[in-house]
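Field reference: sequence -> structure
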Amino acid sequence: MQARDKFFSTLLMIRDSVSEQPTAQIGVIDVGERLDARSAERMKSKFKELARQGRSRHIIDMSRVDDLDSGGLATLISTLRAVREAGGSVHLVANSDRVTHILELTALTRLFKVYPSLQAALSSV
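Structure field:
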């Protein structure tokens, strides 16, 4: 089984265990200054922890990101897929022109709602 499949199956199992008590809490994940293949595991672990707590709505705070590579983009997509399959949602915060430009070039702005600040995301989610 691939690592991606293990991640999806874990989130689906978590969904089944918390679906009886939906919660309005929002999980905020600050990815720091880098979103790449190395930081992907930390982000996936955080999503699993938040899902165990019953949080189905998530915000990925990329406001401090200055290094975003293809591994980081792949992680965003796989995370979105897993969270949606578990009945949740993922929104992004990106205030850097560089990061926003990358998200637009890769058409990820079609998949994610992107907010300019954490406060804007929290008030809209």
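Note: Helices lie at 3-18, 37-52, 70-85, 97-105, 118-124.
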